[in-house]
């Protein structure tokens, strides 16, 4: 998808070998909200480069789990560890740079152009004085390429507020992808998109996971999409926080 | 043909609680009505000041006599007046520029969404304090410090403007959703970057619109601060008034009127254009 040389440096060895390495280690994770456990004793060695669909009814704590993984909410109990030289997940200093998030409400800057919004994905790579006036030209080129790939070539210089809901959603996806994170957390990334774009975006996420070793956590509602794109389905049970379930999915290859 | 009528399911009668239609007498007293009443009382209590000096003066003749001094305006001072106006504009521009630079950090400190409470309190206290002193008094203070020259006007108006711009900018920053900036922080951006890329693009139109308003205001105010010696066209006004040269005074007034009207027309249009887009996308 991208021809950027920088990308290749970040790339970990892809394929089955890398996939067997645990990437994210979740140990006894539990989160309480308003005195109620959303999930407890969650243990899982997440293989590198896998696509995990988080499923469950509304209010079960899917977004909270993602927030927990993102470091935006501290877990009530348990521990998260990155296996790749970062040590304990939340203690790693550059941890936020390694985690990309596609927010449910997108959180784009509405008065900035689509291109600028996408460039924001790489703010963490530069000290503040280098981004005070503009980004390096190469970064702009790479961002434009990514946006063109997502079908937003005509909109890169438009304000985010002047684009449609679906276009904004793709811009938010582009921002997260542009960050090239090791862990990508997507909270309903395709809720505003038609079937074609749904498949396109999820296909890209899957490709990123498998080829570049990015572990993707994705909140999905559509069971058909789940079967097509996910490697694992992590389902949370609203009645019993300890009864979470992880199911391996043997998706049809070819995406 | 009659459209099909969908009726609600029959409910047992007599169990519906109808709320009382009339409000109780004290329920009419919201803040609006109470303040309105208080204002009416204040009007009644203040009528005394309309009495005037109590002497038997012919008001109409006074006006006629005074205005007659203005005509015909003495246009021989046109060049001098234009120079004075130019200096007035320079004072206003410099004061506005300084005030913008000083106000932005104070405003960030004073925005409830961005700063801790104690800092917000201190910053607001400072801005309120500055605002309680009129621009003329600030100019008087500056004249006492740096002497009667345009610099005094710049200093005086800068202080006064900081009080207003700080408050306006604070409001502008508070009206912006901080969630975007928080999101950028979560993606690894530093605080300054999160502010610059997540918050500033949204606050910028408002900040700039307020700044233009302040410039307009300062041009008007700069014409007056000359009266206490702080440079600009006000100095001329003051001396013409001292020597009863009302025909020259009229010329200066005429040019000031032209300038301020032009500013009003232009400024409002430009500001509307700037803010229109900002408001269209503002979440609140």
Task: Look at the helices and sheets of chain B and give the structural class.
Answer: mainly alpha
CATH homologous group name of chain A: P-loop containing nucleotide triphosphate hydrolases
Radius of gyration of chain B, CA atoms, in whole angstroms = 28 Å
Uncertain residue segments of chain A: 1-20
Number of helices of chain B: 10
Helicity of chain A, in percent? 25-40%
Main sheet attributes: strand count, strand direction, barrel closure of chain B: none
Just give the CATH class of chain B: Mainly Alpha
**First and last CA, distance of chain A:** 13 Å
Largest interface: A-B, 34 and 25 residues
CATH class of chain A: Alpha Beta
Say how many strands of chain A there are: 10
| Helix-strand pattern of chain A | HHEEEHEEHEHHHEHEHEE
For the record, the CATH architecture of chain A stands as 3-Layer(aba) Sandwich
What CATH calls the topology of chain A is Rossmann fold
Principal-axes geometry of chain A comes out as globular
Task: Give an overview in words.
The complex is a heterodimer of chains A (255) and B (284). With 255 residues, chain A is an alpha/beta fold. Chain A has one domain (5-13, 48-67, 92-248): P-loop containing nucleotide triphosphate hydrolases (Rossmann fold, 3-Layer(aba) Sandwich). Chain A is built from 9 helices and 10 strands. Chain A has helices at residues 5-10, 15-19, 62-70, 95-98, 114-119, 137-149, 165-178, 195-212, 223-229; strands spanning 22-33, 36-47, 51-55, 77-82, 87-88, 99-102, 183-187, 215-219, 232-235, 245-248. A 6-stranded mixed β-sheet of chain A has the order 6-7-8-3-9-10, with helices on both faces. A 4-stranded antiparallel β-sheet of chain A has the order 2-1-4-5, with helices on one face. In chain A, strand 1 (22-33) and strand 2 form a beta hairpin. In chain A, helix 6 (137-149) packs across helix 7. Chain A is globular, with a radius of gyration of 18 Å. The relative contact order of chain A is 0.19. In chain B, helix 8 runs antiparallel to helix 10 (246-281). Chain B has one domain: MetI-like fold (Orthogonal Bundle), CATH 1.10.3720.10. Chain B starts with 30 loop residues before the first helix and ends with a helix. Chain B has 10 helices and no strands. Chain B has helices at residues 31-46, 59-70, 78-110, 117-132, 135-146, 150-175, 179-186, 191-225, 233-242, 246-281. The model of chain B has no long low-confidence stretch (mean pLDDT 84). With 284 residues, chain B is mainly alpha-helical. The A-B interface holds A 70-72, 94, 96-101, 103, 105, 107-112, 116, 120-121, 123-128, 131-132, 159, 161, 175-176, 179 and B 179-180, 182-190, 192-194, 196-198, 201-202, 204-205, 277-278, 280-281.
